[in-house]
């Protein structure tokens, strides 16, 4: 069975194509000037050495460019998913930014509450890396959606989205195990680990999944 892609009129999505091109241009700029940082981010959750490089450079301008461009990519992804909705467009991006800031603040608060600054600094770095990874993962889906679809239709979901969702879930599970192992090494109580992972990792995923299913 072949999926027939009906090419859309680019004028319909020109407003999204421009910010996408700008975002990709920023990624290319960083990759040329700080390729080692790009490589370290890509492999950070699979190598302690690469993770340490990211941790030492997460305050750098290039890292911030990668982080916020990935946030914007996720905003575009959500925008495309709900493109037929009457919901104000700018709110999608504000919601994404707001959720990321809230999670960051909760992690910072938890580090003071549990007096585990080093561990939660590790969690913040991992969180930033995951935001960038999810943004990169969204890129091919965004490009296909902009070029060929008015919104994510059932046929598109049947072909493209299972791969996107499977990779995203695999990454989520792997990172979940990664964070649990890091907490165990610091001898954090299971109750605290459970509280953190359920409220800041599992709950947001559940809420987003519920919103997508409902809509």
Features:
single chain, 215 residues, mainly alpha, 80% helix, globular, disordered N terminus
Order of helices and strands: HHHHHHHHH
Low-confidence stretches are: 1-9
The description of the largest β-sheet is: none
Instruction: Report the span from N to C terminus.
Output: 27 Å
- Estimate nothing, just give the exact number of structural domains: 1
What percent of residues are in strands? under 5%
Q: How many E strands?
A: 0
Give the number of helices.
9
Cα gyration radius (Å): 18 Å
Secondary structure category: mainly alpha
The percent of residues in helical segments reads over 70%
Shape: globular
Q: Average pLDDT value?
A: 75
Characterization of the model:
Helices cover 80% and strands 0% of the residues. With 215 residues, the protein is mainly alpha-helical. It has one domain. Helix 5 runs antiparallel to helix 6 (117-148). Mean pLDDT is 75; it is low at 1-9.
């Amino acid at each position: 069975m072949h999926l027939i892609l009906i090419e859309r009129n680019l004028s319909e999505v020109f407003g999204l194509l421009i910010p996408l091109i700008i975002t990709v241009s920023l990624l290319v700029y960083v990759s040329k000037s700080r390729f080692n940082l790009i490589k370290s981010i890509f492999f950070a959750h699979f190598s302690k050495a690469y993770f340490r490089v990211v941790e030492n450079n997460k305050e750098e301008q290039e890292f911030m460019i990668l982080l916020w461009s990935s946030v914007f990519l996720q905003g575009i992804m959500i925008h495309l998913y709900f493109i037929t909705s009457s919901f104000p467009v700018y709110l999608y991006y504000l919601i994404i930014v707001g959720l990321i800031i809230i999670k960051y603040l909760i992690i910072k608060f938890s580090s003071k509450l549990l007096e585990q600054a080093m561990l939660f600094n590790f969690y913040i770095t991992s969180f930033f890396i995951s935001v960038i990874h999810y943004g990169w993962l969204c890129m091919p889906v965004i490009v296909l959606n902009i070029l060929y679809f008015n919104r994510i239709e059932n046929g598109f979901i049947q072909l493209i989205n299972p791969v996107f969702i499977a990779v995203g879930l695999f990454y989520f599970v792997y990172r979940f195990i990664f964070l649990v192992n890091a907490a165990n090494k610091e001898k954090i109580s299971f109750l605290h680990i459970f509280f953190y992972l359920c409220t800041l990792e599992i709950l947001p995923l559940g809420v987003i999944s519920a919103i997508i299913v409902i809509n």
